[in-house]
């Protein structure tokens, strides 16, 4: 019994950034994602919610082909970025990941200086022609990551020496330094305290001006606070997808209602 | 009664004690084991330990003290006139011991009474030879009688040892059984004993290291009393003369050691690192599970076999194809030979440790890099290797200390000529080779020419110890990074 994703009329009016059609994911013999179709809009925060193990992180990792690094993982169906199939053999996953950046659940700064952490992506992709340009990119990214004021005097200090919340904002700044078009965030606040969470959420809201942001979260309050669209996953199925306000106040599927009222999950 | 039979009996008594103690513990509380402080098994262990440990300790002490006592008494019995020409008491005593063993053997054949042998009447030497005891000279009556009383004292000693050990075991068995009470902390006692055993085991390792260092230090001290230390550390020639007046400069040797080790690391580090990167980052789990043990087989080859390989294959090959055509030398043993072969030996040390260290770099580091659009090789070069670098350096230092202490390969591959040269195709020698050559052979053990081996050993030990400490320090510092 599959529910077709519930579409809002407004979806058609804005630009579609990513569109998945009949996406299936298998880990060996396990069918982890079952026939998920979803359209993610540009300049919007989309939240994926659902109980643990429902496949929301797996689906997120399909969007920038991070699942390629897992040997037993197999993806079927189409995922289009700006109308282009990202699983087409012509597409280099490395180039794709420069366009679709990712922030992980646990802050993972490289054991390098703060400056080198940010400059890592721009250096690889040759975004700066000289040191001055690189300096500029680093400063701009740190400012957009809302961490510039805290680290501007110690750019040579190791990134691993920062606090958990600072590390996560550093990782977000690192991700936006490569000028991605989409930013995927896999439970970016689950390792953070409420104050750091608030800072990151504020940051996400600002990022919406320029990027399409997809965030996986376990906190329904967080989804309600930061996102405009919400998708509810359950046991590998996309149960319901629509305007965040609509999902939380007037869910159509009984499973969604049970989850957001705390009866399952 | 022989010692092994005695030990078996003591352990048997202890086992009986175990069974009795469990019963007694239950009897003390009228069969309700909940009223006991510990489970019944612990009361059994308590009595077992109380029976076995003191008796075995008594035996141990006895077996150390008895020979000393007997030898001092027998030594007094032998008059100086009985010493062979130029001989010493220790030599006579070893004869006495061998004759006494021979007497036992004669007794065992049952052909004659050992006590009745008379040095003047029979040819004792021939009799001994008949039972497999070879003697260097004919046996004088004094020595024979000393051997006979030596044998008698040993038998008496063994008899009393059995009595005392069994008495101790029995006394402690009965004593500990009668001490069993409901509130006795039997578990704590037996657990403390195990704890003491574990501590003792670790002390053995530490005490041995300490003993080795101390013996090196003492002999080195003797050496420096006979030979000026300035010459040892600063002289550029190594030329031992067993007539005396030798040059014992340590610089040519340490130069050879460092040169060979350097060549070995030049071979081992790049190859080992590339193997580690391949295994950790690219190889699939199946290939890895086969390849890693296969490479580690290299570490299991005895170094003497590597030495043969250097001597028979690599040395002549380098001489015929490189050294002679280029006019750089015509010796098959050379620094390059030993270095190359030692490098091969060190590959698994570098690769296996580095592989573990690269694997320990968290996957989240790699994910972070891939997520930014880095390729796998960029990720390895710029994220994984820098993160693993301290550990890899530690692995390399461990390999270096192996190389410095390596002996067999250099004995067979590098030659024995102490030279200060830069030409890698010339024969050179190392500290370890010279230690071997100074200590083997019939030489007096008090001349600077032999004692220098201890000074060399101590220097080498200091080198490898420093490298090991440095490696440990670096590895430990690295470990703290992700925890």
From TrEMBL, chain A:
Keyword terms: ATP-binding, Cell membrane, Membrane, Nucleotide-binding, Phosphate transport, Translocase, Transport
GO molecular function annotation: ATP binding; ATP hydrolysis activity; phosphate transmembrane transporter activity
Subcellular location: Cell inner membrane
Domain of life: Bacteria
InterPro entries in the record: AAA+_ATPase, ABC_transporter-like_ATP-bd, ABC_transporter-like_CS, P-loop_NTPase, PstB-like
The keyword Metal-binding is assigned to this record: no
Membrane disposition: Peripheral membrane protein
A single GO cellular-component term on record: plasma membrane
Pfam families assigned to the protein according to its UniProt record, in alphabetical order: ABC_tran (PF00005)
Residue intervals of the ABC transporter domain: 11-260
Major location (coarse): membrane
GO biological process, one term: phosphate ion transmembrane transport
Biological role stated in the UniProt entry: Part of the ABC transporter complex PstSACB involved in phosphate import. Responsible for energy coupling to the transport system.
NCBIfam families in the cross-refs: 3a0107s01c2
Designated name of the protein: Phosphate ABC transporter ATP-binding protein PstB
Species, as recorded: Rhodalgimonas zhirmunskyi
Gene field: pstB
Automatic annotation (TrEMBL), chain B:
Key words, A-Z: Cell inner membrane, Cell membrane, Membrane, Phosphate transport, Transmembrane, Transmembrane helix, Transport
Bilayer disposition of the protein: Multi-pass membrane protein
Gene3D superfamilies the record matches: MetI-like (1.10.3720.10)
Record keyword Cytoplasm present: no
Annotated Gene Ontology cellular component terms: plasma membrane
Localization terms from the record: Cell inner membrane; Cell membrane
Gene Ontology terms, MF aspect: phosphate transmembrane transporter activity
Pfam families xrefs: BPD_transp_1, DUF3708
Membrane-spanning ranges: 6-21, 42-65, 158-180, 192-218, 258-282, 294-318, 338-362, 383-404, 451-475
Signal peptide: none
Entry annotated with the keyword Flavoprotein: no
One example of a Gene Ontology biological process annotation: phosphate ion transport
Domain annotation ABC transmembrane type-1: ranges: 254-471
Matches recorded under InterPro entries: MetI-like, MetI-like_sf, Phosphate_PstC, PstC_N
Membership in a protein family: Belongs to the binding-protein-dependent transport system permease family. CysTW subfamily.
Biological role: Part of the binding-protein-dependent transport system for phosphate; probably responsible for the translocation of the substrate across the membrane.
Protein name stated in the entry: Phosphate transport system permease protein
Gene assigned in the entry: pstC
